[in-house]
Amino acid sequence: MSLIGKEVQSFNAKAYRNGEFIDVTEENLKGQWSIVCFYPADFTFVCPTELEDLQAQYPTLKELGVEVYSVSTDSHFTHKAWHDTSDAIGKITYTMIGDPSHQISRIFDVLIEEEGMADRGTFIIDPDGVIQALEINADGIGRDASTLVNKIKAAQYVRNNPGEVCPAKWQEGSETLKPSLDLVGKI
């Protein structure tokens, strides 16, 4: 069943952020736009390239009012150790959530049960805590965080402009569509 349009269920987790261990719940995902980025495991190969790429987009996402959270089934202690030893991960300033209980990975339906790891899942969550977009990739396929900027802008536009939708390849400032009978069969 799709998670689109569903409110994020309650959870409680430990996380690592900027030299500190913090508590994170579903409430942290409310009040602003959020991106939750699941990845299989710390100290791996594709994962650090993705998380470093996400960090490169983080300032732009922050300007758009977006908070970013990465999640793996490793602990918050493992996140700190990785942060302290990897040049790529050492750049990260967003919150790295530990999910060793698999609670959050199950809530977002990305847990690979037999491996105890999460799929590569990216979720865009609106200020009400409702999932507006998601993407799941196979383990060997890394993600491009730059695509999140336009997805966030489109999601924000649609939220702020009821009755309008953003077509494929929509860019901020370009035309949108107003679905109506007049458009049926004309696009």
Give a verbal description of the structure.
With 187 residues, this protein is an alpha+beta fold. The chain is 26% helix and 25% strand. A seven-stranded mixed beta sheet has the order 2-1-5-4-3-8-9, covered by helices on one side. The chain has a two-stranded antiparallel ribbon with strand order 6-7. Helix 1 packs parallel to helix 4 (146-160). The longest helix has 18 residues, at 46-63. The two termini are 30 Å apart.
What is this structure's SSE topology?
Elements: E1 12-17, E2 20-25, E3 33-38, H1 46-63, E4 66-72, H2 76-85, E5 95-98, H3 103-107, E6 111-112, E7 117-118, E8 120-125, E9 131-137, H4 146-160
Parallel strand pairs: 3-4, 4-5
Antiparallel strand pairs: 1-2, 1-5, 3-8, 6-7, 8-9
- Percentage beta strand: 15-25%
Report the radius of gyration as a whole number of Å: 17 Å
User: Which structural category fits the helices and strands?
Assistant: alpha+beta
Order of helices and strands: EEEHEHEHEEEEH
Count every beta strand, where a strand is a DSSP E run of 2 or more residues.
9
| Uncertain ranges | none
**Helix content class:** 25-40%
End-to-end Cα distance = 30 Å
Helix run count: 4
Overall residue-averaged pLDDT value: 95
Basic shape = globular
Main sheet: strands, sense, barrel: 7 strands, mixed
Lateral strand order in the biggest sheet: 2-1-5-4-3-8-9
Comma- or semicolon-separated keywords:
about 190 residues; 7-stranded mixed beta sheet; single chain; 4 helices; two-stranded antiparallel ribbon; alpha+beta
